[in-house]
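pinned: reference chain
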Amino acid sequence: MQPRRLPDLAAWLPTFDAVADATLGKIKRPLPDLVREVSKSYTTERGSIATASSRDALQARFRFFLGRDVAKALGPLDELARTEGLPGTDAPWRILDLGAGLGTTSLGAAFVAGPDAHLKIDAVDLDAVALRGFEALAARASELGLARMDVRTHTLDLRRAPEGPYDLILVGLALNEVTRHDTLLESWKARLRPGGSVVILEPALREVTQQLMALRDDAVSSGWTVFSPCTHAAPCPMRQSPRDWCHEEIRMDLPKSLGATARAAGLRDHRLTFAALVLRRDGKQLADRSWARVVSAPLVSKGKRELVLCDHAGLAKTRRLDRHRSDANAPWSEAARGDLLKLPTSTSRIEADTEVVVPT
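pinned: its structure tokens
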């Protein structure tokens, strides 16, 4: 689902660059080269992911990936906000950020919370330099229009986190560090306040996303509620095929400078993709089983448009002929991967009078 509000990343970049200068010094290599190397460590060469903690790689993370990836965190966080699934502003939010790095996911939470909120964050990561950068960014949160952020850093393995309890447990790009889901889920259960949420973000890569889908099924089996992206508690139907993996997208254009860097590094400069999972213990869900999640890009061919939807009945390809386009099914024309749709009945064909609804 597209967030209702996106940050003005162009206005944030000077602060990110200033903190990078103060933390790491001036950048000494062309930024696109560094971005390309870090991207490979996260994608095609994940065996070398440790290189993403090198000083040169931190330059790329500060000056490129930070701004881009904050926007990705807004997808699941905004869905929590829509359903009053986040704390209010009458008391500080307690947040545990596991694999915090530069604080990307926490910055997303501070944006969604707004400038009147107060976040108390325990940030856990093995990279002490990155955590110093997070502290420096948090100290300048007001410049970015974010919630006040008090950050305590812990240079620890994420399995040795503080006890809490917490309103939010944020886990960004950290599943590769975990081999057993049962111990991870038990650890989160012990640290989460009633009414709290675990928000997990991973890159939209097949291998790591399939690991996230397996974690989702393990969580359901051990009593967790999937708040999102699913609208049901049945086993994930996409796990039946080794070719499928569930991910979402946010449709936005990067600021001019980030876009130029992305293109020079061979990356896209729009349509940010990610995989997410939000877990709770209280039974609260984003949507009931009458809703379906779009899990494909639009499949457009002569005379028709198709989408693959996921709901309690599994995966279904639904079709609308161009000649049946109408005001009633207009949301079908705009729907993209990650969006929620409600149809009056489970159907594989959208007719002119089929009413298609999206969340408000």
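why pinned: The mean pLDDT is 91. Residues 55-82 form the longest helix (28 residues).
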